[in-house]
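Suppose a colleague, Dr. K., hands you the sequence of a protein chain of 135 amino acids and asks what its three-dimensional shape might be. Before reaching for any lab equipment, you can write down a predicted structure in token form. Begin with the sequence itself:
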Amino acid sequence: MITNTSELRVRYIETDQMQVAHHACYFAWFEYGRTELMRQIGYPYRKMEEEGVMLPVIEIGGRYYKPARYDDRLHIITEMPSLPRATIRLNYRVVRLPAEELLAEGFTVHVFLSQFGKPIRPTKRFMQVLKPYFN
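The predicted structure, expressed as tokens, is then:
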């Protein structure tokens, strides 16, 4: 399993009049965690896209437990639980610091597509980067 922890602060623009983060922000935070995980392993999205591979979201879900509020420090914990095949699944946890209080959990599923929109398998190079994390 590959895990990445990214930190962010809830910005004022992400909150409502009660200073509670809007539920849609969590999906943007999942994307932030996902891109940071890819950067951490040395295979950022930019590199994948330069190789002609796209990873659109085909499924997304989340469960909210407690609200994030303006100026909260958060950890977005992103996990890739298994090697991808035609799709890749990532799991997320959003926790408030410093107590590591669980605020939300979620997941995304992505499909590998060519730059022309055709389903493809992950590249050999990408799989070589991932394999050491799963041995």
